[in-house]
Amino acid sequence: MKTITKLLGYFFKKEIWSVYQSNDNTSVILVTVGVWGSVATNAGLGNLRVRSDSTWNNTVENVLYVNQNPDPAKPGGNVELRFKVENLGYQKYQDVVFQILPQYPFTLLPDDDGLRRLGDIEAKQVGEDAYIITYKLAVDKEASEGTHAIRIRYSTDNGKVWYRVNPFSINVQSFDAILSVVSVASIPEQIAAGNLAQVTMRFKNNADTQIENIKIKLNLVDRAVTTTGIAQVEKPFTPIGSSNEKSIDVLGAGEEKEVVFSLQVDPDAESKVYKIPVDLSYTDRLGKAYGKNLTLGLIVYDKPEITVSLDTATARQTKTKGNVVFRVSNVGPANIKFVSAVLQGSEDYTVLSAEQLYLGNIDSDDYESAEYQIYINADKTEVPLRFVLRYKDSFNNEMEQTETVALRLYSGQEAAMFGLSTGSNFTTWLPAITILSILIVFWLYMLIDCIKNPLPKYKKALWVLLFFLSNIVGAVLYYFLARRKNVK
């Protein structure tokens, strides 16, 4: 094409500058038509040429490269265009004016009419002495992907006569975030430990062209730093029926599709929110690859299971006081926090100690004890004790649980028989009192016998002293060693 152009130029005695395409797919244009030689005509600028690059590439003559920033331009953003104007001839040009003629999807910024008045351009004003003109355009937010034409014109007489150059192209491409996650749903929303959940992720293509090779991968392994190095810690989820990676072949412009993961939760999974990293990759229609790192939140929750039982009790009879000890057990897989226990009084009993006790945190498969002192008012065989628990679950939700624990009461004889006596009933002490009375009577009888015994005075005095010093032991020794025989 260059050869044909030169031949035509020679034939018509004119220099014809043509339009080419660069190797990097950047659209290129050309610009001017002039009379052969250094004398300009009304047909154009002659040896005045326009380039968008800051240094002329001698290997690609008469070619205008589009120099834009950013490249590609983004819908809804701005793009800056730069041009370089050089005078290759020996004639000076005066009152040179350039103006850009933007069309959809490009518009000039406010207070910019697109005119760039260069004034005079000297002969052979090239290289670092050349003019650099810059335009900043706004890109419509609804601009479609691809190349869009834009024009520029010039004047050498301060705008009286204008010459329009061939259009050139601006590359427009959507933002990298053209693929978005519309929604994430888990059924059930709160997954119990040991159960199966269906996790659905819905994706939307926000671009106006299709995207391809979409891959969605759930990262179910954490990297944890330990004293021995970096260890991998698996999250308590196992894919069921497929792997942890899904794919979508093609997603058209504005189209939505969803992928479903079946995840089994480990039976011993702790109740909390688990953050699952999601690796997302895809390509656009031009083959450009994109990647994103997202985070998916899954809730594992087990409702606390608390049991309250009567551990021990010394208050077992009416009109007595004693202690009752409750055992608060966490029999569920979830931990509970900030546990406080309240024993509420009633007409059947009076709480003598503090009604409210703080038990702290209770882990799964663990228990805490709560001890109270009460006085039994009721004359019944069974008294209901009203026990209230207040605590927070794994998500700090306030929880309250009321339990009624039966306290069995016994009569004095039953309490003594079962060894449940509190020690305040007479019948409990009756056997001991009886034995003690017999011993006292025996001691007195032996003492009287010693006094009446016709023993020498010094022996009698020693025995009496032994009676008072050793009590029943002295009486027993006297009975076997020195008591009177055959006393009538």
Verbal overview:
The chain is mainly beta. It is 14% helix and 47% strand. The protein has five helices and 33 strands. Residues 1-45 and 53-65 have low confidence and may be disordered. The chain folds into four domains: 2-172, Immunoglobulin-like (Sandwich), CATH 2.60.40; 179-300, Immunoglobulin-like; 306-411, Sandwich (Immunoglobulin-like); 426-481. Helix 3 (426-452) packs antiparallel against helix 4. Strands 4, 6, 7, 9 and 11 form a five-stranded antiparallel sheet that branches.
Query: What is the approximate shape?
Result: rod-shaped
Low-confidence stretches: 1-45, 53-65
- Rounded to the nearest angstrom, the radius of gyration is 51 Å
Helix content: 10-25%
Class based on secondary structure composition and strand pairing: mainly beta
Total individual domains: 4
Individual helix count: 5
CATH-defined superfamily of the largest domain: Immunoglobulins
Distance between the termini: 162 Å
CATH fold-level topology of the largest domain:
Immunoglobulin-like
Looking at the overall shape, the CATH architecture of the largest domain is Sandwich
How many β-strand runs?
33
- The fraction of residues assigned to DSSP E strands is over 45%
State the name of the first-level CATH class of the largest domain. Mainly Beta
- Average residue-wise pLDDT: 79
Largest sheet: 5 strands, antiparallel
